[in-house]
Amino acid sequence: MAGDPPQAGQHRGRGVTAPGEHLFFPLQEPQTIQRLFGSIARRYDLANHLLSGGCDFLWRRRAARIVRGWAPGRVLDLATGSGDVALTLRRYLPEEVLIVGADFCVPMLREGLKKGAGPVAAADGLALPFGDGAFDALTVAFGLRNMASYLGALKEMHRVLRPGGHVLILDFSVPPPPLRWVYRPYLHHVLPSIAGWLTGERSAYEYLGESIEAFPSGAAMSALLEEAGFAEPTAEPLTGGIVSLYTARA
Ligand SMILES: C[S@@+](CC[C@H](N)C(=O)[O-])C[C@H]1O[C@@H](n2cnc3c(N)ncnc32)[C@H](O)[C@@H]1O
C-alpha cells in the first residue's frame, strides 16, 4: 500500500534498492542531519517530551529494564544525542557498568554533558572508533532512522558487540489502523507546526515524518537485523505501535 514502510532491501524512502544491494541513498545527507540536530539541540528535550506527551520517559524506561536483564558490563548508547537514554541506563544499571554515549552531533553531546551524561564520544555510527567486540550491549534510540545506511549502521553495531552481545533499537513506526488514520495527520501536519513554533525549525520536523514513513518496522526490521548478522530478532510495538522496540543477539 502506498506510504507503508518499506520492506527489507528497500533501505531508504526515496532510494529503492534491490535485496542484496546496499546503495547509500540517504533521505538527507549526513551533514544535513548533523546540522539539523545542531540547530535544535537546545530545544530538543522540551520538544521531545511535549510532542510525545511524556511517553518518551516510558519508552526509555522499558528499554533500560530490558538492558538490565542482560547484565552487561559495557554498554554503548549510539546516537545518544542529549543523553536521555544513557542517563536512564545509568539509573537502572549497577554503578560499575561502563556506559558510553556516541553521536556525530557535538551540540547534542554538549547538552548531554550539561545533564551529567558521559563519557561521550563524537563518532559516526557508520564508522565507530571502537574495536571489534568492545561492548556487551548497544542501544540506539531514534537514531538508526537518521543514518545514511540502515544496513551499514547495523553491521557496524554488530562489529562492536562481542559475540552473543545484545542490540536494542527503539524507534518510531507507523501504527496500524485505526490509530494510523489519526496518527498520519498528526505526524505530517500538527507536529511540524507545534515543533516549528517550539524550535524555530519546522523543516526538521517535516523530515521526521518522512523518515518515519521510510523506516522499516516489524518483520522488515527483523529481516534487516538478520541480514546484518544478528540472530533471534524480536519486535515489540509500544504505545499502539507509534514506537517499536527491537532486540537481537550479535
Ligand atoms: C532524534 S535524536 C535521538 C537522541 C537520543 N537517542 C534520544 O533518544 O533522545 C537522533 C540523534 O542521532 C544522531 N545521529 C544521526 N545520525 C548519526 C550517525 N550517523 N552517527 C552518529 N549519530 C547520529 C543525531 O546527531 C541525533 O543526536
Primary descriptors:
250 residues; alpha/beta; 7-stranded mixed β-sheet; binds S-adenosylmethionine
Concise description?
By secondary structure, this protein is of the alpha/beta class.
Describe the structure.
By secondary structure, the protein is α/β, with parallel strands linked by helices. The protein has a domain at 42-173 and 215-249: Rossmann fold, CATH 3.40.50.150. The protein is 44% helix and 19% strand. It has eight helices and seven strands. It has helices spanning 30-51, 55-70, 84-92, 106-114, 150-160, 179-199, 202-214, 219-227; strands spanning 74-78, 98-103, 120-122, 135-141, 161-172, 231-238, 243-249. Helix 4 (106-114) links the parallel strand 2 and strand 3. Helix 1 runs parallel beside helix 4 (106-114), helix 1 (30-51) packs across helix 6 and helix 2 (55-70) packs across helix 3. The protein is globular, with a radius of gyration of 17 Å. The two termini are 33 Å apart. Mean pLDDT is 87; it is low at 1-25.
CATH 2nd-level architecture of the domain at 42-173 and 215-249: 3-Layer(aba) Sandwich
Along the chain, the helix and strand elements come as HHEHEHEEHEHHHEE
Helical stretch count? 8
Rg, alpha carbons: 17 Å
Q: Identify low-pLDDT runs.
A: 1-25
Distance between the termini: 33 Å
The structure class reads: alpha/beta
The major pleated sheet works out as: 7 strands, mixed
Bound molecules: S-adenosylmethionine
Sheet with most strands: strand arrangement: 3-2-1-4-5-7-6
Helix content: 40-55%
Task: Find the CATH superfamily of the domain at 42-173 and 215-249.
Answer: Vaccinia Virus protein VP39
Q: What is the class of the domain at 42-173 and 215-249 in the CATH system? A: Alpha Beta
* CATH topology tier name of the domain at 42-173 and 215-249: Rossmann fold
Mean pLDDT: 87
Strand content: 15-25%
User: What overall form do the CA principal axes indicate?
Assistant: globular
User: Care to count the β-strands?
Assistant: 7
